[in-house]
Protein 1
Amino acid sequence: MGICRDMVGTQQGLRRKGGNRAALFVYAMEGLENMAFVANAVSLVTYFFGFMNFSLTKSATTLTNFMGTAFLLSLVGGFISDTCLSRFKTCVIFASMELLGYGLLTAQAHFQQLRPISCKNGAASQMSHCDAATDGQVAILYTGLYLIALGTGGVKAALPALGADQFDEKDPKEAPQMSSFFNWFLFSLTIGAIVGVTFIVWVSTNQGWAWSFTICTIAVLFAIIFICMGRSLYRNNAPKGSSPLVRIIQVLVVALRNRKVQIPENAEELHEIHEKERVDNHEIIKRTNQFRFLDRAAVVTNNDGPWNLCTVTQVEETKILIRMLPIILSTIFMNTCLAQLQTFSIQQANTMDTNLHGFKVPGPSIPVIPLLFMFVLIPLYDRIFVPLARRFTGIPTGITHLQRIGIGLVLSAISMAVAGFVETRRKSVAVQHNMVDSTEALPMSVFWIGFQYGIFGAADMFTIIGLLEFFYAESSAGMKSLSTAIAWCSVAFGYFTSTVVVEVVNKVSGGWLASNNLNRDNLNYFYWLLAVMSVLNFVFYLVCASWYKYKAVEDKHRDSKDNALEMVNA
């Protein structure tokens, strides 16, 4: 009876922790951290070119490498979070690295001796006469940049998983709340991004980069303070101690070693941890029939040890990761399309009328358009669409994760098609007004490109959070942060492949994008090509999604807790 009461007390203690109260601190950190990151993502090219005297090509390459690396480094944060540190400690440590990075950039922007004399007021043709940044000045810049990249990568891996940990996906009451968490996580991310691309961009343009970086530094500092304030409320999943990557390698090595071993017909004969050997938060994943050759790693032989015998759960962890890879690959192209909206669409905006009731919209602030769409759509999705869909499907999330990702991929294809039509109209306006070679703004409002941005904003809402939720829900208990990091890698590879796609298309097409004059280029053809390729990519995704088998978990640990509750109540 005493053991039963202890189990009930533990369960009630867990229920007092977590939930929406704990998630509020996660939202606060995400909003503040993303405010700083996105503000710099859309405007750092200006800083590199105008204040560090980089060439336009080097400025663009430096930013692209920074963005791609930041998302790739989430793998480091995910690995550490699952292996060595709790998700909370990972967030604090990596955010502190990010804080140091912004501090370095603030100091460099403030003290003239840490950067070259600015040539921003000179003509582009005179850039070659400007003093280049010294090796020491470049070293300070890159140190600051990649401390930010490492820091934000770790936060992006651990923070969504920390927030989702506050809800029990196996609890009928908390499962819908966990789905809502990912929606409101995106909402906080969006609010931070809106403030970043408007207020902070305005500060950097009108008050100087020293003030802009100072605000970013303060924002990250408060992000750390907020996440620490909620420490007593968090449900913390302790790291497993063993690396998920090592466990996967063990399965592959043992399966290869046992390639001639016969797999028993009875699945019960495969090795699994017994009930009495289980520890808290350990889950047993049911065996699936896919990739049966890996089951040889769980066949009991005369040899013991992790490099000679694996559990069925360990084998299924490996199968899950293999099944996830085609899903993540099929979403990379969508992020390649996103990169075009952040480059070519900005160039389109620079040729159009950017006046809004007497206020001139800065070029780097144009991405606020899809963010505003997301700001409106996310609450509607969470409060209206999901409850309505839940009535018909019975699924806590309204629709499955893979369905949500698929809707986003369809919308991204539509966005590219619309972008092609908008560009066709923009070019026709230039021809009609004899402004093909003019540098003046065309008599066409910049908000025409709001159509393609708005549709892509909706696509982002479905796909990005669908991926995060899918990878968190489907991964094993010991791989939550790493799986979240893998989801972010889709964005990283989208940035890296963007340049390759542009160069290949430009070469094969004979120069659709060869001119420096958009009015003479064929950007509309490029957008339509991306739309067609997006449709083909969606077909590939449908094949992958129909082939995917969702994870099934034997939750014997919860059953024992429920039995204990019944005994105490009796």
Protein 2
Amino acid sequence: MAQIPNLDTAPLNLNAIRDKAQKDLLDILLTIRGKKCLVIDPKLGGTLSLLIQFSRLKDGDVELRHLSADPVQTDSSNVIYLIRPQLTVMKTIASHIQNGISKGIEKKYFIYFVPRRTVACEKILEEEKVHNMVTLGEYPLYMVPLDDDVLSFELELALKENLFDGDTSSIWHVAKAIHKLESSFGVIPNVRAKGKASTKVAELLNKLQTEDPVNVDDGAPEINTLILLDREVDLVTPMCFQLTYEGLLDELLQINNGAVEVDASVMGAQQDAKKMKVPLNSSDKLYREIRDLNFEVVVQVLRQKTTSIKEEYAGVKTTTEISELKDFVKKLNSLPEISRHVNLAQHLQSFTSKPSFHARLDIEQTILELQDFDSCFEYIEEMIHKQESIVSVLRLLVLFSLTNAGLPKKHFDYLRREILHSYGFEHMQLLYNLEKAGLFKRQETRTNWLSLTKGLQLINEETDTANPNDISYIFSGYAPLSIRLVQHAIRSGWRSIEELLKLLPGPHLDLKRGTPNHIDSFGGAHFDRVPDGRRSLVLVVFVGGVTFAEIAALRFLSSQEGMGYDFIIGTTRVVNGNSILEAIVQSSG
């Protein structure tokens, strides 16, 4: 199965976006004559694997390398670097060029920045005295389709940069990506944003429309509504452990660029290969069917499918009808998919069947319901004393702190001290950064979590994970706050929850854009049909990252009877609690 997702069923022509990205890259290679060596930033390798088969890049006179500290050894006369605009990368390239010069090797060097060049990067080349030896260009890749309803802007550190560094370059990048979408599909008439970064993106979109106008007279826009949400508005949801099949795969095996990497033995392979890459996207029909289900239900579905094939096999052994045999052979075509997911599910069960897994989920639910403060505190204290992974401890601690608006001084100081004793005083900066970002802090005001859970109906004790009628099935009883906000935005507008919105971080705004005849009554009325009778298309953009659980919740909403919306999800990257906290831990080292 290909890692490049099939986009034919997308509610928007995402194939056109991918085709353009492929063409732009191939054009760069075509414009440089002679043998060439394409050196790819390792952080871009995975992204490019979602766009183009590497064999197409190797056609003709191109050899491929990954950027490393070691100088590039090649017979090619042209060396092309395809890189993210990062200062450390520029220094590496400068050292490659200087190494070549010192050895008297003559080559032509090209640097293509993704998505655009920066003054700071050019300055490094000047300081290293190699700027006259390099031709600079840009590869304007602002987004990549991860699946037929998910676009990634591939901004790995957007949340950390916004929360800690005051670096707002990702905000410009998101606005530019949406503006590029508008260039293809029309100006989005209704915009609703919540959070500091999201409202800036909305304002920048208007500025870009003024500076580089999209023609609004080419018929009705294909995207009716844009909803922008800061990850900071809802950091509770990613701290919760995801329980959908896709979410659980990400939590336990890390989905990267639409694939997981597992030991070959997990997939039942006998060969010597130690690791296997398993693609996960909607090209796999079974995966498309089960990925958004609660994992308990997935196990039942897989059991039913394997039992059904066994029974049919028993029946087919005695049949004399060719048509029955033909039908059975057709069903056998799905066997590799069933086998793949039975193997993966069995591997996941080795984690989810442990009592410690269920104990953790129980304490999470207790925290979300603001019940039994002392037992939650003691559970985290015990994790610290057992020296469980610091990311695992912090994930529960951040959830505890966020829902309680911080911890009372006595409890805060005690846990802080215990963390430093158990994990080392080198984590002092980490704890300071978490406090600065409001993720683990002293309690100064009363918590508003209870008001939010009641006002937005976030806790549902009657959840039926097998036959869900609400998005709370995603976390077996907790409805993601972020998706409740989306529900209100499309159903009755922000106005109905104005007071609740004020309890969440950052400003909010509503914008109506484009020409009057393209604007829907967004102030409160439904807009689930556009003039030609198609389902209305809503682009939901998460600035700072989205979880697979939230993606599943939006797909569930779209599938509900009477819901006339299709969703396209845009995100700076796909995240979970671990990846958010790991980025903070690494930058605090």
Protein 3
Amino acid sequence: MAASGDSYTKDKIKSSTAAASIETASKSSNSSTNEKEKESPEVIRQRILDQEAEFRASQKPTTNLGSLWSWKKSEGRRPEDIATQPSVFDNPELAPYFQPSERYENRHRFDPSFKWTWAEEIPLIRKIDWKVTAWSCIAFFALDLDRSNISQANTDNFLDDLGLDTNDYNLGQTVFRVSFLLAELPSQLVSKKIGPDRWIPIQMVLWSVVSAAQFWLKGRSSFLATRALIGLLQGGFIPDVILYMSYFFKGTELPFRLALFWMANRLTDVISPLLAYGLLRLRGYHGYEGWRWLFLLEGILTFVIGIWSYFQMVPSPTQTRAPWRKKGWFTDHEEKIMVNRILRDDPSKSDMHNRQAITFKLLWESLCDFDIWPIYLIGLTFSMPAGPPDQYLTLTLRQLGFDTFDSNLLSIPCQITCTISMLLITYLSEKLNQRAFMGVAMQVWLLPCVIALYLLPADGSRWAAYAVVTVLLSYPSTHALQVGWCSRNSNTVRTRTVSAALYNMAVQINSIISSNIYRRDDRPEYRRGNRALIGIASMNIVNYLLVKMYYVWRNKRRDDTWEKMSQEERRNYLATTTDKGSKRLDFRFSH
């Protein structure tokens, strides 16, 4: 576990403990000749994978951002120490069940007897970070720049210039989010079929062209059409990038990289107003409004990033050579290290090749996993009290009397403080091992702020209004925390990707509803809308508490069932159960 974790000795003890339990289960499964005859190698293999997935879940950080604070847990390692992680491949009885598929693109570098040192692994990980992690952050910057620059355009009389009103703006944002939502799963199917290294650059180039084409917007119809196209082309980008990154990093390393990936989103919200501060000054150049130049030039910028991505991305760790990159990224020795370290961490990654489509069976199984539904329900409303104020931030600042340039600069502080508070609440979640209570804390932050927003007098100080909105939007977001929560309660490698996508779809529905809370007949104070936000924040507090009670109840029922079983019954269950993931009696839900 090169980026974070304990020394090799400690890793070996932990992994050996896991292997011992797996081997015990394997032996138990052979206690009866009839049972042995009934079980196929695929059944045995899947049962061991489930048990290893549970072990990894107990060792890895509970949230994606949590590993920020465990980045330096490498004390006690010496460069000459062996970095090879113990795994099922070290057990002659278990190894045959985990041989890579014949179609696995990295199979030629697989060698279960291969060993390497920390002096070889750590520099290799740093190289991967520069090649893959850095690219992913820049790519996310491109996505967020083109989907959110409409907020900066609003400070330059965008709506008035096109003859639009608040309701039209709401409809445009709704169309974008519905399109984004509908494209999530189809995009993942395409990405898995043709490869994320091909599909992601295509997405980026196409949405950049549409974004730049907003320079020629004429009215309501063209506005809605471009919002729909951008949503369709951007949908699925985030899970596609996560899939791509999983080709290069172990399960314990990926969370830290995803933390950087999501923080790039917040940093875009800081950089975007600064870019707008300069680009909107082009108003009147060649007779065009400043917002037109904003869309055009930022679209060209992200188009260039999309083209660069085509040449930067690679199909897999062993397929990095290209006509423009004749030597590739890695030596043959480095490729062997990469492939073997990935498969030792998670043998199931060799089940499919990088051009193999996923099936709908996995989606259906994930949909039927009702124990994850409470987290999906949380995703539907948790950020809604902050949604409309965030979406209307620049418009609100203009209505308060701030000019175009001040409005863009004044939108920056809350983005910085929100990033800090998000990291803090994620840290506290890990330290206290609490998730639902962290969600309650977020709503407790938001509730008095939306109450204050509702009570602000229409003729009050504009700085007082700005202060309330800034404090509100500095809220400690639990979004990243809840992605980790959903992943942890899924408990299998096979379902985590789908459950994360379903949770993200719930969040998109959240955004769609948020886009229609502030209405034209309620402006400029939006009293009715803010009253609704007060009710939603109050409801969310109850929701989080109910979800916690549900998981506590589910765990107690399993505890009762488990305690009534004898040791022999438990061993027999572990050896023969067909329960998967969170359905297993020995699994307990996080809350």
